[in-house]
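Posting this for the archive.
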Amino acid sequence: MGTGGDRFFCSVLLLLPVLGLSGALLNSWLPGDYSDTTTDVLRFLSDYNSTAEEVLFYSVSASWNYNTNISNYNSELQVNASLDEQAFSEGWGLKAKQVFSQGTLNSLPNPEDKKLMEKIKLLGAANLPQKEREEYNTILSTMESIYSKSKVHPQPNVSWSLEPELTEIMANSRSYKKLLYAWEGWHNESGVPLKKYYPRFVELSNKASQADGFKDTGDDWRSSYESETFEQDLEELFTTIEPLYKNLHAFVRRQLYNLYGPKYINLKGPIPAHLLGNMWAQTWNNIYDMMTPFPDKPNLDVTNEMSNQGYNATHMFRVAEEFFTSLGLEEMPQEFWDESMLVKPDDREVVCHASAWDFYNRKDFRIKQCTTVTMEQLFTVHHEMGHVQYYLQYKDKPVGFRRGANPGFHEAIGDVLSLSVSTPKHLHTIKLLDSVTSDYETDINYLLKMALEKIAFLPFGYLIDQWRWGVFSGRIPTDRYNTEWWNLRTKYQGICPPTTRTEDHFDPGAKYHIPGNTNLFPCRYFVSFILQFQFHEKLCEAAHHTGPLHTCDIYRSAGAGAILKKVLQAGSSKPWPDILQDAIGTNKMNASSLMNYFDPVIKWLEMQNVNETLGWPDIDWVPPIPEGYPEDIKRCGGNGFSFTNIYSRENCSQWGITKCTFKIKDSKAHMSLQESSVQTQLDPVSHLYYTTTTEQIKLVVLFSRYYIQSVAIYQPSIFKTIKFPTLISLSSLETSYVHVCIALFCLACDILHSLNPHI
């Protein structure tokens, strides 16, 4: 996602922030004297533009400093800078209202100039009295600070941040309890403290919007689409894709049922929100390993290959840059490489939520991202660089037009490229896949993986603003914030909270876009997911692609690049339907391209779901709390049986042995060295001995070796610090090696428990 300034500046990460002047604007930032003539309108616009560039440079600088180094000092500077920016907007906006008559504006020969003047007259938060303006900015800064500093503490001396620890747990663990602990901990730690701030923020935000002539802030935000039928258009789009979503939901629910059983999965009910591979269940691609239609086909996740080739954050961004330049678009300026924050620093708190930044001086553009070397993050890198490419292309437009044609355009551009980057063809081209296999089964694997990311997201992208619009309009009162949040999530997503949630909680606040007031414009992500497929289809045509749409890679296509450049350079200077018409030949958003892209997997899902219930008629069903939760998760620092240093954690390992042995004895399991019996992926192994004699320790090691090899794909994060050549060697049986054998045995138990929590 991108970032920027207020409602008329290119914006995504709204904090409107800056290097403060403690409420005292420089004289050079104040408007001069003008008369009510068309000549002075043009002079006013020119003066405004040059001044706005200066103000916004300092503004975004203060926001950047705070986001990359969270401290009370930087927070104070950011709040002061926001006040300065709002004072600037107030001064110039009031001057425009006082001096220039509507008749003069109507007589301007260039309609773009009139459009700019109308934007300048909208003051936003600058409408608020000074004291309330200060309160508004302080609330925003406080909410973002709470969110960014939140951590889960499984033990007093152990903490899990959202990135990377909690994100990795949600993506990689298959333990029902551990996922529940991470989910509940994050929602409590980040959401609950925000609850007391949000109602006052809503009150102040509505007051500012109403002063600009809007009913409320939701009405204000929707006006950016310049469409009286916007809400109805969104509803029609959602109705079009809903059958596909319900088929995907039913298939995923069945696979989760096969793993977790009827106790935790109701085949006619919503899915517990913590089981879908993501803290917010907004994308489900992290559980693809459990959903793979044809597991014998090559694995399309190139994360391991990226690591093997020595990828780091900088190289990932260079790869993304080369994709853009291959289309004839701009390379990143030197300031980008010098000033961006591409990895999470160790010495300070930062806002890890990935974002792109325009500093409004036409040369300084940055990305802030706590990048890790994964395939998913490679796509995020392309997405964020898509924002920067947009900034570069429209940098010479007036400040008021430096944003996407509509809010969804900005989000769509980077994702359009990701549709090409994720294809096996492209991954092979950049040497991350050894070969490309083109057959029905491989295509279905690929399309299901894409559906888990793209289709799974659409209801979430739709409902988050349904909730906010309801809050701003008063339709959702303060004493029903959380209840209505979960009503919407169950209605549209078919998910439910895995624990009891009440109005003492504030689960919307556990998603960055709420406390960060991001996504200033409504449904930008939902709109972008529709638009990106419309753009993709047209760009593939320009690239002379033949074959199914999902196999298209526009890499190195000058024709596709020319279309993109035309869209990007226009910014928001023309109505978005006109820009869309010029680019792809239609002025309407529609889901036909998306449905065309996913057509093979749509048909496949329908076949799989012949006997499944589509939807969630048992809408009020919720899962039970597991026995022993959360006490057993808190053992061993919250890591269950997993650990990386047996020598310093012998107590944990001994607890793990007792636990594993007890469970295995209860199920009368024994050990076998037959390789076929340990390759069962989702069921308990049928045989396992546990003793401490020398020969039997050898058996434990051999079993662990076979078992780990057969299921490592399900828990790759466990193995990052294990040195297998040392552990697997059977040449030594020294005392220390016995401890290693014990450790490896517990590791196998942990994997087994993660894959099937019932044993």
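The two ends are 42 Å apart (CA to CA). Residues 1-127 form one domain.
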